[in-house]
């Protein structure tokens, strides 16, 4: 867990450092495929620059997902990913949503079969705020099923295990998880 947090921190700091290079006129323009940079810890950064667009997109793929979950806990990776943006130890889901909406950005976390992914898209001027939100979501998730009076669609096997109520979307493989307080 500590190694994962350190890796995430290194990635976020590396992205911020790369953005400083992008902002300087002396930075070499990337080709159509961009630049590939391998950090000392083995993490790979792919950098593609378009100076005419004042937008920064950060996409992360982490070796996790369905293949990494225990056999007796199917859907755990998807549930974890679904809960990542639903609050942290320092921000509620509403605060996260309001902060990213205020700067006109987007923030997402999803779980797949082979990888978990996280994404951030913000204006260049709001990069520090966006990276702060992304860092908080990835390193300090509350991971609580207490979701207030809202509902979320999660993988059907997970909903069955945690007492979710499956509605009209059961056929799509997802169920509606409703807080039953």
Q: Nutshell version of this structure?
A:
The chain is an alpha+beta fold and 181 residues long. 34% of the residues lie in helices and 23% in strands. It folds into two domains: 143 residues, Metalloenzyme, LuxS/M16 peptidase-like (Cytochrome Bc1 Complex, Chain A, domain 1), CATH 3.30.830; 33 residues, no CATH class.
Task: Explain how this protein is built.
The chain is of the alpha+beta class. The protein folds into two domains: 2-144, Cytochrome Bc1 Complex, Chain A, domain 1; 149-181, no CATH class. Helices cover 34% and strands 23% of the residues. The chain is built from five helices and seven strands; from the N terminus they run αβββααββαβαβ. The chain has helices spanning 2-23, 76-84, 93-102, 127-139, 156-162; strands at residues 35-38, 44-47, 55-63, 106-111, 115-123, 151-155, 174-178. A three-stranded antiparallel beta sheet has the order 3-5-4. Strands 1-2 form a two-stranded antiparallel sheet. Strand 1 and strand 2 (44-47) form a beta hairpin. Mean pLDDT is 72; it is low at 20-30 and 162-181.
CATH topology (fold) name of the largest domain: Cytochrome Bc1 Complex, Chain A, domain 1
Largest sheet: 3 strands, antiparallel
- Lateral strand order in the biggest sheet: 3-5-4
Which percent band covers the strand fraction?
Answer: 15-25%
| Number of individual domains | 2
- What is the straight-line distance between the termini? 31 Å
Q: Average pLDDT, to the nearest integer?
A: 72
**Count of distinct strands:** 7
Alpha carbon gyration radius = 18 Å
The CATH architecture of the largest domain comes to: 2-Layer Sandwich
Instruction: State the helix count.
Output: 5
Secondary structure class reads alpha+beta
Q: Which CATH C-level class of the largest domain is it?
A: Alpha Beta
């Amino acid at each position: 867990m500590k190694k994962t947090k350190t890796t995430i921190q290194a990635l976020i700091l590396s992205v911020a450092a790369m953005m400083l290079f992008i902002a300087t006129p002396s930075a070499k323009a990337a080709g159509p495929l961009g630049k590939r940079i391998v950090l000392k810890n083995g993490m790979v950064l792919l950098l593609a620059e378009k100076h005419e667009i004042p937008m920064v997109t950060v996409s992360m793929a982490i070796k996790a997902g369905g293949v990494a979950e225990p056999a007796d806990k199917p859907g755990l990776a998807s549930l974890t990913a679904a809960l990542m943006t639903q609050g942290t130890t320092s921000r509620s889901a509403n605060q996260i949503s309001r902060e990213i909406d205020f700067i006109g950005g987007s923030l997402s976390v999803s779980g797949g079969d082979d990888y978990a992914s996280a994404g951030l898209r913000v204006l260049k001027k709001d990069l520090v705020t966006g990276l702060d939100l992304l860092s908080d979501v990835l390193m300090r998730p509350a991971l609580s099923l207490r979701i207030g009076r809202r509902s979320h669609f999660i993988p059907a096997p997970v909903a069955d295990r945690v007492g979710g109520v499956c509605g009209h979307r059961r056929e799509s493989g997802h169920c509606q998880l409703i807080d039953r307080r």
